[in-house]
Amino acid sequence: MKTIFRSLLNFGAGILAGFFILSQFSFYENNILYMLKLANRYFPVIEERLKANGVPADFKYLCIAESNLLANATSRSGAVGFWQFLAGTAPGYQLEVNDKVDKRRDVIESTDAACKYLKQAYAKFGSWTAAAASYNCGMGGYNAKATAQKTKNYYDLLLTDETHRYIFRILAFKHLMENAKELGFVLNKEDLYYPVKTRPVTISKSIPDLVQFAIDNGTNYKTLKLLNPWLRSKSLTVRSGKSYTILLPA
């Protein structure tokens, strides 16, 4: 299936709800323009990881619905990062979270983690749309509704208003991003944020002072943090047998 929304696009009520939500975005023009700039930087990375994991490319719009492509996005419930994992859930998807490191803020590793979740949900519920819905209400929440109503089919399930709106939000983001110019959101090439050319450095020993580390490697702490938002402190502890890859400007 090339898109998680193939059936939804033929679902009239869904289209109406999606465009209703889209109409609300007009009040946030600056936010949308900023999101379009970020998409030019992050979509190529996210699309590559989705493809590598066998997950439909449309799920990049779920990432927007979750975080607006902001590495440091934090929800009221404490979910963090591009794909909004909770601290208690993240380790189960190989995302390290401690006082020095938060891999929920790493676009590559967090996308791989989201793919693992989505593939599990797809295997459990039988469709990518159901998998997307469960990302909002949880696999347990979706399964409880499916069990009570004796169907796993998203289109036959009565779910909470929040979860229904969530799917239509993703659809609205898809329409917006793919038709930005026609909808009046116009950016020149020089306005876009482009992927930063970097060089990876493998770190196998603790770094007591990341400020000095950045200077010693020809950059500054601000740039180091922008390229590696998963670094949470001014030092990095590396346990025996473990290593990290830090990105530095090329």
- The radius of gyration computed from the alpha-carbon positions, rounded to a whole number of angstroms, is 20 Å
* Range of strand content: under 5%
Report the count of strand segments.
2
Nearest-integer average pLDDT: 91
Helix content: 40-55%
| Run of helices and strands | HHHHHHEHHE
Query: What fold name goes in the CATH topology slot of the largest domain?
Result: Lysozyme
Number of domains as seen in the coordinates = 2
Terminal Cα span: 38 Å
Helix count?
8
Low-confidence stretches: 9-14
CATH class of the largest domain: Mainly Alpha
The CATH architecture of the largest domain can be given as Orthogonal Bundle
Q: Which oligomeric state applies?
A: single chain
Q: What class, by secondary structure content?
A: mainly alpha
Notes on the structure:
The protein is mostly helical. The protein has 2 domains: 8-191, Lysozyme; 198-249. Helices cover 48% and strands 5% of the residues. The protein contains 8 helices and 2 strands. Helix 1 crosses helix 6 (161-178), helix 2 (29-52) crosses helix 4 (107-125) and helix 5 (128-149) runs antiparallel to helix 6 (161-178). The radius of gyration is 20 Å and the shape is globular. Residues 9-14 have low confidence and may be disordered.
Spell out the key features of this protein.
250 residues; mainly alpha; Lysozyme; two-stranded antiparallel ribbon; 2 strands; 48% helix; globular
